[in-house]
Write a structure and sequence with these properties.
- The protein is mainly α.
- It contains six helices and six strands.
- The strands form three sheets. The chain has a two-stranded antiparallel sheet with strand order 1-2. A two-stranded antiparallel sheet has the order 3-4. Strands 5-6 form a two-stranded antiparallel ribbon.
- A hairpin with an 8-residue loop joins strand 5 (153-155) and strand 6 (164-166).
C-alpha cells in the first residue's frame, strides 16, 4: 500500500524530517508517514529517502542502494506494521495478511551485527541489501508484537501527533510520545486554560 500524500511542493519542509521518538525501530519506521489523521505526508518519496532513513536511524553507516520496487515493498511492510500496532492498541485481532507480510519480510537474511572497536554495528549481507533492512525491521516488529512489551504499545494523546510509541515508564501510564514535546505542549495548554478560568482578583464591593 502506498500512502496517498500531498505533492512535495505542498508539504511543509518540517513534515519531511524523520521522527525517532517512538522508542522502537519498527515504530520509528511507521512514523515515516506524517499526520496520518490529516495530511498523511509521505516521507519516503524516493528510494534515496529510504536509504537516508537507514542512516539517520543508525542502522547503517554505509549507503544502501534501494530500487523503486524495494521502496514499494518497504511501504507495504510499514503499513502492515502500522495496522498490526493499531489492532494491538485497540484490542482487535491482527489481520492474517499483515502477519503473513511481516513474516515473509522477516524470512530474508537480516543485517549482520559485527563488533567494531567494542561497539556493535550492523552491516549488509553479501546480497539483498534492502531486503536485509526490511528483514531487520520485520523481526523487530515480531519481537515487539509477540513479546513482553506488546502491552506497552501506545498512541500519543497529543491532538496533533498520534505517534505510536512504546511506554517504558514504570507505571505504564504514559500518554505522550515525549514529555518535552507533546507532553510539554499539553502542560502549557493546561496552564493557559487554568489561568483563563481563574476568577479575576480585586477588591470586593465596599
Amino acid at each position: 500500500m502506498t500512502v496517498q500524500a500531498s505533492s512535495s511542493g505542498e508539504v511543509p519542509a518540517a513534515e519531511l524530517a524523520f521522527n525517532f521518538r517512538s522508542g522502537r525501530l519498527c515504530l520509528a519506521f511507521v512514523a515515516t508517514v506524517g499526520e496520518r489523521w490529516r495530511g498523511r505526508y509521505e516521507r519516503l518519496r524516493r528510494p534515496s529517502d529510504l536509504a537516508r532513513w537507514c542512516r539517520e536511524a543508525g542502522l547503517l553507516d554505509a549507503p544502501v542502494r534501494v530500487t523503486s520496487r524495494e521502496l514499494d515493498e518497504a511501504r507495504e511492510l510499514r503499513e502492515a506494521i502500522y495496522r498490526q500496532a493499531r489492532a494491538l492498541i485497540s484490542g482487535r485481532p491482527a489481520a492474517r495478511q499483515d502477519e503473513t507480510l511481516i513474516n515473509a519480510a522477516a524470512a530474508a537474511p537480516p543485517l549482520v551485527p559485527v563488533l567494531r572497536s567494542g561497539h556493535v554495528r550492523l552491516t549488509l549481507p553479501s546480497d539483498g541489501a534492502a531486503q536485509a533492512v526490511l528483514s531487520t525491521l520485520a523481526r523487530d516488529a515480531i519481537d515487539l508484537f509477540g513479546g513482553s512489551a506488546r502491552g506497552r504499545v501506545r498512541e500519543c494523546a497529543g491532538p496533533e501527533c498520534g505517534l505510536l510509541f512504546v511506554d517504558t515508564s514504570r507505571p505504564g501510564r504514559r500518554r505522550w510520545c515525549s514529555s518535552t514535546a507533546c507532553g510539554g505542549k499539553e502542560r502549557s495548554a493546561a496552564y493557559r486554560r487554568r489561568k483563563r478560568e481563574e476568577p479575576e482578583s480585586g477588591d470586593g464591593p465596599g
